Amino acid sequence: MDERIRQSALRTLAYFDIFDYPLTKEELGRYLYSINYTDFLLHLEQLEHLQQIQHHCGFYFLPGREDTIAARQDKVKIVEQKMKIAVRGIKKIRWAPFVHAIFVCNTVAGAVVEENSDIDVFIVTRAGRIWLARALATLTLSFFRLRRTKRKIKNRICLSFYVTDDNLNLEKIAIEDDIYLKYWLAQLIPVYDPDNLLAEIQRANVWASKSLPNAFVQFTPISRWQVKDGRLSVKIKRVLEKIWSGNYGNLMEAQARGMQKARMVLNYMSVQNAPDTRVVVNDKMLKFHESDRREEYRKKWEEVVKAIIKKN
After folding, report:
1. Is 85 exposed, middle or buried (0-12, 13-18, 19+ CB in 10 A)?
2. Which of 79, 220, 221, 288 has the fewest Cβ atoms within 10 angstroms?
3. pLDDT band at 49 (very low <50, low <70, confident <90, very high)
C-alpha cells in the first residue's frame, strides 16, 4: 500500500495513544496526519490488514493497546458531566460585554479528562476590550462559585486563555512542530458562538490545517451543547457595549488592565516573564498555562512514532 498512508495512520494513532484514546474510523479519517480523507478511504481496507494497526469494536489502535477501548468508554460519563457544568457556567457569562465566543478546549474537548479535572475554556473577545471582558467573566463565575482557583479545581471552569477577535492566528505561540496545539485547535467545542467565530479561527490557522487537512472542515456543532443569547442577557450586553464602546470604555479598559496587572505582579510563582509562551500577557492575548505540557507531549509522540518505525 501507499507508504504515506501507512505512516500517516501510524503517526495519528501514536499521538492519541499518548492519551489512551483509540479512534473510530470517522475520527481516524478526520484527524489523519497530512493525508486527505479521500486517500484514507481508498486505503482503509489495506490499513485494516496491517499488523501495525489493530481494530476491535469499531476502534483503531496500536498493537497491544486494546485496553484503551475500556479506558475511553469509562470517560464518556465524565465528559458528559463536565460539559453540563461548562454549559451552565457559559450561560452565566454570555451576558458579559465584548465576549464574542466561548469554546470548551483541552482535556474535556479531547475526551481525555479525569474525574478531578477542571474545565478549560477558550474565550474570544472584542479587540480593545480583553481586560474588561476578562474582569467581568471572572467576577461572574466567582460569584456563582464556578471558577477554578488554586484550591478549588474539580469541575470548576478555568478561565486561562483569551484572545481578541483580530488575533485569531495562534501560530505565534506554537512551539516547534506543535502537534498538541494543532489538535487543540481541531477539537475546540463551540458552546457560545453566535457569530460562528469557529470558522474564522479555522481560516486564521491555515498553518495547522496543512498538517490536519480533514480536521478543519466545517461541521455542525453538537446542538445540545450550544448556548444561545437569552433575551435579557443580549439586552444587557448591547447596552453595556454601547456605553463602553468609546472613550469611557477606553478608560474602563485601562482601569481593568491596571488592576489585573497589579495583581499579577504579586504572583511571584508565575512564569509570566519567562522567554516562552506558557504565559502571555498583552492587549491581544491573555494566556495563563503555567504547566504547559506541549513539549512533553511532542516528545512522547516522537518517541512512540520512532519505536513504531524502528519495529516495523
Report:
1. middle
2. 220
3. confident
